Amino acid sequence: MLKTFLITALCCGDIFMPKTSNKFKEIKSARNFLDPHFTEGHKGIVQLFEWKWNDIASECETFLSLMGYGGVQISPPNENVIIYNRPWYERYQPISYLIKTRSGDEKSFLDMTQRCNKVGVRIYVDVVINHMAADQPSKTAVGTGGSNAKPDIRDYPFVPYNVTNFHPPCPLIDFNDRYQVRNCELVGLHDLNQTIEDTRNKIVGYLNHLIDLGVAGFRVDAAKHIWPNDLQIIYNRLNFLNTSFGFDARLNPFIYQEVFDSGNEAVSKFEYTFAAVTEFRYALELARSFTRNDQLKWLSGFGGKWGLLPSKYAVVFINNHDTQRSGGVLTYKNGKSFIMAQAFSLSHPFGTKRIMSSFDFDKVEEGPPNDGKENILSPTFDENGQCNNGWVCEHRWPQIASMVEFMNVVDGENITTWWDNGSNQIAFSRGSKGFIVFNLETDSMKDVLIQTSLKSGIYCDVASGRKTSNNSCSGKKLIVSSEGLISIDLQSDDLNGFIAIHTKQKLD
């Protein structure tokens, strides 16, 4: 995890690298951790950052399952240290592996996994296994579950860990030194030594307990700071998923690892392909494209040739809880350009998609909406189903939720009939199932004729509306001719900047 006060140092050296081809050597695992176990008709992950377990359970039942979301990445569920003013990053400072945080206890956690799995939505846990809590102003740190620890002497009795479970402290990390990156303390967070058998066993025990509680996999925080060999040993000791929650027998958990690599790092994301990896450069490049720092036409070859991971290993996103606070990416605060980039991501076949669902913030350290007494507030919803109470909920924005449906409909189809105007207007089909067009020019598109791979008929644009119960459309209607041609009118000041159609929203 990139701590707020050190994000710039970690992520902003040579952010936008030229598009280069990397030699890729597949690092295989004894087991396959690449399958997210999505249920039929469900794809993609939403990061419900800092949501409470009971609210996630309700969201699975009332919205996510209905809109085709595949799973939820939840915030770390283990006991964390309580920090003054309750900043978001306290969740990334463990003092035990008890399931007790401001999001809920183990009972409500189990209720969440049962309810979400029942409606076909998987749960992926953000696990913090690189480190434990940093020193606190008081020698004794107090946790969200009532446990105490003494970080200054590496004493975490409710795991238990002591000084023998940690790497010795060392000066500030030289990020050009791969050994320091993996053996030294990240911004004062006491660095666990996963080569120690006792440390491994306790981490494995924690992860297996979560598997017993019905999760489908893990996002491994700060994996870049752990030796790949130690991670492989830990992963290969994990249990199969719990069949009591509807999983088939002998399924491995889905594992995706946080490895920030802009393309010029001492530690490479390519060292971690024994499981999936978070592809940070994806977000950086799309931010560059959708802010006109690079032309959209170049996205015709977007993927591995740009120095990205092979698609099957990549978990991709427009932003996450760290990067939306550090700059260089698009967030909910960027409006139209963010919506366009998210729509491109969901329409494009590369990678496993993850959508950030935020709470509103002005200061980078701000924690989630609360009642002033340290209790997290639940989101409330307006008459249009949009979030209030301090929550942004990008996953509920109509343009994004509709594009999740698009992603599900076109799943398995390659890009066909690519078109561009030589600059910032692009379009492509996903086989015979979907078509999308973007206009990032200052000039409007008027009666632009584009070849698609779709069957003839009338389609409803999901960027501006939906098919209604009487087989009409609440947004724009588009006609595909018998030759597969479509005439596009897309104004430069269009609210969304894109038009998307697919077979599920066909009107005849």
Strand order of the largest sheet: 1-2-6-11-12-13-14-15
Give the DSSP E fraction (strand runs of 2 or more residues): 15-25%
Mean pLDDT: 94
Radius of gyration: 23 Å
Which percent range fits the helix content? Answer: 10-25%
Tell me the distance between the termini: 49 Å
Major β-sheet profile: 8 strands, parallel, barrel
Task: Label the CATH architecture of the largest domain.
Answer: Alpha-Beta Barrel
Which geometry do the CA atoms define?
Answer: globular
Low-confidence stretches: 2-21
CATH class of the largest domain: Alpha Beta
Number of domains: 2
Could you describe the 3D structure shown?
- The model is unreliable at 2-21 (pLDDT under 50).
- The strands form eight sheets. This protein has an eight-stranded parallel β-barrel with strand order 1-2-6-11-12-13-14-15, surrounded by six helices. It has a four-stranded antiparallel beta sheet with strand order 18-19-20-25, with helices on one face. A three-stranded antiparallel beta sheet has the order 3-4-5.
- The longest helix has 16 residues, at 197-212.
- The protein folds into two domains: 43-278 and 359-392, Glycosidases (TIM Barrel, Alpha-Beta Barrel), CATH 3.20.20; 415-505, Golgi alpha-mannosidase II (Immunoglobulin-like, Sandwich), CATH 2.60.40.
- It is of the alpha/beta class.
- Strand 19 (425-430) and strand 20 (434-439) form a beta hairpin.
- It is globular and about 70 Å long.
- Helix 2 (53-67) packs parallel to helix 3 and helix 8 (336-347) runs parallel beside helix 9.
- The chain has helices at 7-11, 53-67, 106-118, 178-183, 197-212, 228-235, 280-289, 336-347, 398-409, and strands at residues 43-48, 69-74, 78-80, 94-101, 104-105, 122-127, 131-132, 141-142, 148-149, 190-191, 217-220, 254-257, 276-278, 314-316, 352-357, 380-381, 387-388, 415-420, 425-430, 434-439, 445-451, 457-460, 477-480, 485-490, 498-502.
- It is an enzyme of class 3 (hydrolase).
- Residues 43-407 form the Glycosyl hydrolase family 13 catalytic domain.
